[in-house]
Every structure is written in C-alpha cells, then in structure tokens.
Design goal:
This protein has 9 helices and 10 strands. The protein is α/β, with parallel strands linked by helices and 246 residues long. A hairpin with a 2-residue loop joins strand 1 and strand 2. Helix 4 runs antiparallel to helix 5.
C-alpha cells in the first residue's frame, strides 16, 4: 500500500505539486494519469525516495520513506520511464546484480528469471549485453529487475512503452495476478484506454493538483453515463484532443 499525505513539492517559488493526498490500496491497480508536466514524475520520484517532499508524508506499507528509506525501498519494485541503464552488463548479470542489491534468495532466482524471461520472450538473449537489446527488450529486463525480489508494491512509470503486443498483454496479466494476491500496483500511463480497462482506481492530476481519486464507476456516475475515461479526462482537464496521447 502507498499512502501519500498532503504531499507538496516546491523548487524555489515554483510549486510543482500542491498538497495532494491519495492511497494506492492493496488488492488494487491504481492508475496515475495526467499530461506531461502535470506532476506525475515528481510524485513518483517522491514516492520512490528519489526526491524529498517539501511538505507531507509518504508511507510504503506503513513505513515513512523519509525516516527509514532503506526499509521502505525494500517494499517496492520501481520501473522508471527510461530503460537505458547498465548497458555493458549482460541481461543475466543485470538481473543477478539487482537480486543482490535486494538480498533476493539465490535459490529462487533461476526460477523467477526463467519464468519471466520466457513470458517476455527474452530468455535466449540473457547472455547478450543490454547495449545490444532493443528498447522493448530493455524495458522487459528493467521490469524483471524491479520485481526479482518479489516486492508487494509495484511502482511502474509508463511500463507499457516500447513493449510489443504480446509482452504488453503479459505485463497486464502479471499486474492483475499481483493484486489478486492482495498486493498493490501503482502505474502511470498516457494510454487512457488501458487505464480504463485495467485500473480499479485512478488518480487524475493537473498542474500539480489532484483532480480526482477513486473508482472509474464513481467518476462516470458524475458524468454522462456512457462517457469514456478519455472524454471525462478531456472534460476535467479542459484540453484539446491534439494535446493528449492516447
């Protein structure tokens, strides 16, 4: 579970995120949507401990990341929006490196790597350097590295970008399987159709302010009965079609 309480981030006189609060519950996939510059990346960086809040508290499974960063970070797996890391390592070296960082049991690694690598279709490429991988292959490897220690909380920043249709389907299945075990998934996306089909709850952010947090059904209840998430999003953010990536 992720609890964000009255989070504010300022850089000088510029307030990037203003006093937002929400909970990414256990047993639920929570989507985080908003335009570029809305404050999504800043919020995710604060949740993962990359930056410190100006104000507010962020708890991961009840652990304050500002007070016990190491313990809090052991609770989650984080996939950033860029997969271009450790390019000179082989895929297998990278996965074992990540497992070592998180003290993942050695005896369970091989089974995890084989299972996920085969589901993602990169098993035969694990002996090659990451530099030789396509963008999509790197994305798959980063996802595996984030999940190799079996964290209960998944934090995914645009995780479907660059994935082929089969791998995107597999990841969405994995996300659903994860929350069905009572865990939580928090992910950002520009693809509103995916958010509508996949998410149990959504958070909509605009100019650093949280416009909505709750279920899609509750959101639709306040709008036209047949309105799609895309239409509601455009209405809430008062944005032209050409400014939204879907």
């Amino acid at each position: 579970m992720i609890e964000v309480k009255n989070f504010t981030k300022q850089y000088g006189d510029n307030t990037v995120v203003k006093d937002i609060s929400f909970v990414a519950k256990d047993g639920a996939i929570t989507g985080f949507i908003g335009h570029n510059g809305a404050g999504k990346s800043t919020t995710i960086k604060a949740i993962t401990g990359v930056i410190k809040p100006t104000k507010g508290t962020i708890l991961i499974n009840g652990i304050d990341i500002a007070k016990d960063a190491k313990k809090a970070k052991m609770q989650f797996g984080y996939v950033s929006d860029s997969p271009d890391h450790f390019l000179r390592l082989t895929g297998l070296e990278y996965l074992n490196f990540m497992a070592d960082i998180y003290d993942a049991p050695v005896e369970g690694r091989a089974a995890f790597i084989e299972d996920y690598a085969k589901r993602f279709g990169i098993y035969d490429s694990l002996g090659n350097t990451i530099l030789s991988y396509s963008h999509g292959m790197r994305q798959k490897l980063m996802i595996m590295g984030a999940l190799i220690h079996s964290p209960s909380v998944w934090i995914l920043d645009e995780p479907l970008t660059g994935l082929d249709p089969q791998s995107a389907f597999e990841l969405k299945q994995m996300m659903r399987e994860h929350v069905e075990k009572g865990n939580s998934v928090f992910f950002s996306t520009h693809v509103l159709e995916v958010a509508e089909k996949l998410c149990d709850e959504i958070c909509i952010i605009k100019h650093g302010e949280l416009l909505y947090h709750g279920t899609l059904d509750d959101l639709k209840a306040t709008h036209k009965s047949q309105a799609s998430l895309e239409n509601i999003f455009l209405e809430l953010t008062e944005t032209k079609d050409s400014e939204v990536t879907v």
